[in-house]
Amino acid sequence: MVSRSSVARPRVVRLAGLGVGGAMLLALLSGCSVDGIGSAFGGFGWPQGGISLQAHKMYDLWIASTIAALIVGVFVWGLIFWCVIRYRKRGDKLPVQTRFNMPMEVLYTVTPVLIVAVLFYYTAIVQTDVDKLSAKPDMTVEVVAFKWNWQFNYRDAPGAEAKTVASTLGSSDVIPLLVLPTGKKIRFEETSKDVIHSFWVPEMLFKRDVFPGNVRNTFEVTLDKEGRYVGRCAELCGTYHAFMQFELVVVSPEKFDQFLAAKEAGSSTQDAMGVIGYTGDDRFAITTQPFDTRRHGQSWNQNNDPVAAGK
């Protein structure tokens, strides 16, 4: 005759083994950085190479959420396969039917609620941080979108009443360059001259719609990696939507000060790029190039009036 204790002992051993395995997995994960795990697995589908502090926080949230989902998934899959093997059919006798198991029902009700609450908590923290506006940003850039190009105004303060100290205007012949420094809190204030557009630099892992009228969509970033990155309109806005591009040029604060001083002195964007060490074709966009808009080289400003190209 087999005693109950002898039957229960293997179950205790299996549960203890499962607990030890879970503890070892958590210890292994805690010894690795979120960024290291994400890099090892290709970001779990999230784009890597963010160039702002805000992008890094969103990336870390994604990786942590994915790891948590994988841990829950492995646990659930383990239970499913264990039940399939442990309670597989061994004859024609009907197994004992259990109408309910209160501890189990409490477990699979409370656990998902706790998981969702934790994910919501950290998502709200990161979202709040990404959308946070500082009282005194280091610099302000007004983004003016129009069919089908961009104008970037460097402003002396936040708000619609601030003054523009320098400006870069795109044309159908010259991709506009948005030159910005690293390590500074940069506020973007967006407005559109006609329809809804969308300001998007893929490496910033962030985009924000640009609305017409008196609506000024505002956000801030702090860039931490120098380089040159393509920018696009991410909102279908008309015939030449695909051509509505710009280039973000991230430089050191010292080079940016030289660039802005040259612009304030009346230099063109390309001449100001030459002042900070860019020569030849590097004074123009290198991540993208103008498309053939079939306008026969004619350029347009934000009011859709023809103007001279290359300003």
From TrEMBL:
<keyword id="KW-1133">Transmembrane helix</keyword>
<dbReference type="GO" id="GO:0016491">
    <property type="term" value="F:oxidoreductase activity"/>
</dbReference>
<dbReference type="InterPro" id="IPR014222">
    <property type="entry name" value="Cyt_c_oxidase_su2"/>
</dbReference>
<dbReference type="Pfam" id="PF02790">
    <property type="entry name" value="COX2_TM"/>
</dbReference>
<dbReference type="InterPro" id="IPR011759">
    <property type="entry name" value="Cyt_c_oxidase_su2_TM_dom"/>
</dbReference>
<keyword id="KW-0479">Metal-binding</keyword>
<protein>
    <recommendedName>
        <fullName>Cytochrome c oxidase subunit 2</fullName>
        <ecNumber>7.1.1.9</ecNumber>
    </recommendedName>
</protein>
<feature type="transmembrane region" description="Helical">
    <location>
        <begin position="106"/>
        <end position="124"/>
    </location>
</feature>
<dbReference type="GO" id="GO:0042773">
    <property type="term" value="P:ATP synthesis coupled electron transport"/>
</dbReference>
<dbReference type="GO" id="GO:0004129">
    <property type="term" value="F:cytochrome-c oxidase activity"/>
</dbReference>
<dbReference type="GO" id="GO:0005507">
    <property type="term" value="F:copper ion binding"/>
</dbReference>
<keyword id="KW-0812">Transmembrane</keyword>
<comment type="function">
    <text>Subunits I and II form the functional core of the enzyme complex. Electrons originating in cytochrome c are transferred via heme a and Cu(A) to the binuclear center formed by heme a3 and Cu(B).</text>
</comment>
<dbReference type="Pfam" id="PF00116">
    <property type="entry name" value="COX2"/>
</dbReference>
<feature type="domain" description="Cytochrome oxidase subunit II copper A binding">
    <location>
        <begin position="136"/>
        <end position="262"/>
    </location>
</feature>
<dbReference type="InterPro" id="IPR036257">
    <property type="entry name" value="Cyt_c_oxidase_su2_TM_sf"/>
</dbReference>
<keyword id="KW-0679">Respiratory chain</keyword>
<comment type="similarity">
    <text>Belongs to the cytochrome c oxidase subunit 2 family.</text>
</comment>
<dbReference type="InterPro" id="IPR045187">
    <property type="entry name" value="CcO_II"/>
</dbReference>
<feature type="transmembrane region" description="Helical">
    <location>
        <begin position="61"/>
        <end position="85"/>
    </location>
</feature>
<keyword id="KW-0249">Electron transport</keyword>
<dbReference type="InterPro" id="IPR008972">
    <property type="entry name" value="Cupredoxin"/>
</dbReference>
<feature type="transmembrane region" description="Helical">
    <location>
        <begin position="12"/>
        <end position="41"/>
    </location>
</feature>
<keyword id="KW-0186">Copper</keyword>
<dbReference type="GO" id="GO:0005886">
    <property type="term" value="C:plasma membrane"/>
</dbReference>
<dbReference type="InterPro" id="IPR002429">
    <property type="entry name" value="CcO_II-like_C"/>
</dbReference>
<keyword id="KW-1278">Translocase</keyword>
<keyword id="KW-0472">Membrane</keyword>
<keyword id="KW-0813">Transport</keyword>
<dbReference type="InterPro" id="IPR001505">
    <property type="entry name" value="Copper_CuA"/>
</dbReference>
